[in-house]
């Protein structure tokens, strides 16, 4: 591959490469996931992370084409896959790292050691905007007009927002599971004008379908299977380092759902280390909910490891076979991470390897108790995000993390994404259990109701106003 940036299969026995223009989400030779890779020797890479500090002086909308306004693109030299004039940005990533001593004290940590990274402060209210700006930039470059995703809610909100903010606008199509989405997130997809298909089934079913439909109808896929998403999400780690004056923390703690974020973090630190921009790599803790604990079962139970990319896939097949046989479906109050078949599992194993990581699971009760603490002592977060703080308490009690280590918990989504969970916790009123009155057709001129669709390819195509092309 002669290009400075390209796509490459993560399987060490394959390593097939694809140009950036090729729309391919799994290796055509071996079906493994793809990475975006760079020929760094031929690219202008800063020699020190402090290079990026001058961008604070040009962070207005006019200078540098507005790119320094973005908390993703002000690090563009570390994700150089798209020319500046193709970038689709809405000022994502202007988030903050809070040193929270009150919560640290509550957890028994030394003051000054606990940091909360509030990704809920993104324009659509979650970390997804970091990745979406990157994937939309590529879609824009490729001239795509329709984009689609499956979502537990936040991806759909972000896709819907970026679709109508793109110039020219794209059509955002989102697949959500029936009854599986927090209303804050559903309301965003509808309000931002996405074509919303509510499919009978859960997230895993939606993801399978959207991959199939996107492939058959030529719609660009925006789930984290898309490796460009993960390039943008690396910026969360750059901002953590930036806020710490480039000092690497001891631990990064992140919730695990489809495992895109943790995969992006592992790639970010591997690259920074290999480029000589950091001297050590922090450790990683990925936190599952007990009701959606595939990664925990595989890594902590079955001892599944990356093994240089030659991991034991039969172990994963066995677990999925058992789940099918026993009709096990994921279930957790943290609906954002209610995922049983995480698509980025191999990349997460690699991230755990790079960052000497581990996995823990926390119960819904632990999640809600720690969500209340983040609210009481900080700016609040949605349930999935609070899994990080619950996981931190567990790792402190196991003496794996010590009270004087520097720990960064990634708070992935805004408190107001899922107000039902908060209201129920504080009042006991379960809004979802209230029998709703029969629906009346919406009368607003801009109403954009979701379409209910069976989990069936023909029905989905019909809902999109299309018929399946004849098989060649
Ligand atoms: N936290 C929040 C708030 C999320 O919305 C998600 C994922 C995660 C954590 C898990 O991140 O998938 O990278 O491991 N939400 C996706 C969605 C699945 O559709 O919005 P991950």
Overall description:
- The structure is a single chain.
- With 472 residues, the protein is of the alpha/beta class.
- Helix content is 35%, strand content 14%.
- It contains 14 helices and 14 strands.
- The protein has a 6-stranded mixed beta sheet, with helices on both faces. A 5-stranded parallel beta sheet has the order 9-6-7-8-14, sandwiched between helices. Strands 2-1-3 form a 3-stranded antiparallel beta sheet.
- Helix 7 links the parallel strand 10 and strand 11.
- The longest helix is centred in the middle third of the chain and has 17 residues.
- The mean pLDDT is 96.
- The protein binds ligand F0G.
- The site of ligand F0G has 21 residues, from helix 3, helix 7 and helix 12.
Give the CATH class of the domain at 96-123 and 230-419. Answer: Alpha Beta
Q: Which architecture of the domain at 96-123 and 230-419 would the CATH scheme give at its second level?
A: 3-Layer(aba) Sandwich
Q: Overall pLDDT, averaged?
A: 96
Distance between the termini: 30 Å
Give the total of beta strands: 14
Find the structural class using helix and strand composition.
alpha/beta
Describe the main β-sheet briefly.
6 strands, mixed
Work out the helicity level.
25-40%
The third-level CATH topology of the domain at 96-123 and 230-419 is Rossmann fold
Helix count equals 14
**Widest sheet: strand ordering:** 4-5-13-10-11-12
Q: What is the strand content?
A: 5-15%
> How would you spell out the order of helices and strands?
EEEEHEHEHEHEHEHEHEHHHEHHEHEH
Ligand catalogue = ligand F0G
**Gyration radius from CA atoms, angstroms:** 21 Å
Low-pLDDT sequence parts: none
The coarse overall form would be: globular
């Amino acid at each position: 591959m002669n290009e400075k940036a390209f796509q490459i299969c993560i399987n060490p026995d394959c390593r097939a490469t694809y140009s950036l223009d090729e729309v391919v989400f799994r290796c055509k030779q071996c079906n493994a996931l793809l990475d975006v890779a760079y020929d760094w020797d031929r690219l202008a890479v800063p020699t020190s992370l402090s290079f990026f500090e001058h961008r604070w002086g040009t962070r207005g909308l006019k200078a540098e084409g507005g790119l320094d306004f973005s908390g993703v693109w002000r690090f563009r030299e570390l994700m150089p896959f798209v020319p500046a004039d193709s970038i689709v940005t809405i000022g994502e990533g202007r988030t903050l790292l809070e040193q929270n001593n009150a919560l640290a004290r509550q957890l028994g940590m030394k003051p000054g050691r606990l940091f909360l990274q509030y990704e809920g402060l993104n324009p659509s209210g979650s970390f997804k905007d970091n990745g979406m700006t990157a994937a939309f930039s590529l879609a824009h470059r490729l001239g795509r007009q329709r984009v689609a995703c499956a979502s537990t809610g936040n991806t759909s909100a972000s896709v819907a927002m970026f679709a109508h903010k793109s110039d020219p606008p794209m059509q955002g199509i989102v697949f959500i599971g029936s009854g599986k989405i927090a209303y804050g997130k559903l309301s965003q997809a509808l309000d931002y004008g996405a074509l919303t298909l509510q499919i009978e089934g859960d997230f895993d079913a939606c993801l399978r379908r959207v991959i199939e439909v996107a492939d058959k109808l030529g719609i660009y896929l925006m789930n984290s299977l898309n490796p460009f998403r993960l390039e943008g999400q690396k910026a969360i780690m750059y901002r953590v380092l930036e806020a710490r004056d480039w000092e690497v923390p001891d631990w990064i703690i992140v919730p695990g759902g489809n495992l895109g974020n943790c995969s992006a973090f592992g790639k970010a630190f591997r690259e920074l280390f290999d480029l000589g921009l950091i001297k050590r790599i922090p450790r990683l803790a990925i936190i599952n909910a007990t009701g959606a604990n595939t990664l925990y079962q595989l890594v902590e139970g079955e001892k599944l490891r990356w093994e240089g990319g030659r991991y034991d896939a039969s172990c994963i097949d066995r677990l999925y076979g058992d789940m099918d046989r026993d009709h096990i479906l994921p279930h957790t109050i943290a609906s954002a991470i209610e995922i049983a078949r995480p698509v980025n599992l191999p990349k997460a194993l690699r991230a755990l390897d790079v960052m000497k990581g581990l996995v823990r699971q926390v119960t819904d009760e632990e999640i809600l108790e720690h969500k209340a603490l983040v609210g009481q002592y900080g700016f609040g977060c949605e349930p999935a995000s609070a899994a990080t703080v619950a996981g931190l308490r567990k790792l402190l009690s196991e003496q794996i993390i010590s009270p004087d280590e520097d720990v960064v918990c990634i708070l992935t989504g805004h408190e107001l994404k899922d107000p039902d969970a908060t209201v129920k916790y504080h009042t006991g009123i379960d809004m979802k259990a209230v029998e709703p009155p029969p629906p009346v057709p919406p009368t607003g001129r801009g109403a954009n109701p979701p379409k209910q669709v069976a989990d069936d390819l023909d029905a989905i195509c019909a809902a999109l106003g299309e018929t399946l092309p004849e098989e060649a």
